[in-house]
Design a protein that fits this description.
3 helices, alpha+beta, 8-stranded mixed sheet, globular
Amino acid sequence: MSVKNPTRVITGEVRLSYANLFEAKSIQGSKPKYSVSLIIPKSDKVTLAKIEAAIDAAIEAGTAKFGGKRPNKAALKLPLRDGDTERDDEAYTNSMFVNANSTTPPQVVDESLSPILDRSQVYSGCYARASITFYAFNTNGNKGIACGLGNIQKIRDGEPLGGGHVSAEEDFAAFSTANEDFLN
């Protein structure tokens, strides 16, 4: 029987953005990480409440990193952010978001829990559930709670974000020679 980790959350349906789930990327020379921005509708009160509770548990569990005492939550850098105020992006409207990352690759599965091997099936804009874990950090004077990426379960397709991938057929249909008869 496993003990429930109070800093771990399985989200409801979220939308993936900036999804780097199959290949670790380095940001400004840092150690390469797998990462994703999880867009959570403000209407998903259950997931948001679970995240708030997990952040509180991470603050409590991380008191050693904060000099042995529980800091004022308002003084910490927190991972749950408001898309309406922090992102000038329509995809984040009426949503909260969490950026999650990991140095180890997440398992990415479909609704029947089968591994998704075709990278094109999981992209920024699709909908998924995610397992995430919150933990305290205190680095170079920056104190806060970060979000670790666990696993991803794709639920359904969505409109690709960020200009998304377009098929070659769509790009070049106007230039198609398929209907031209070169012998005449």
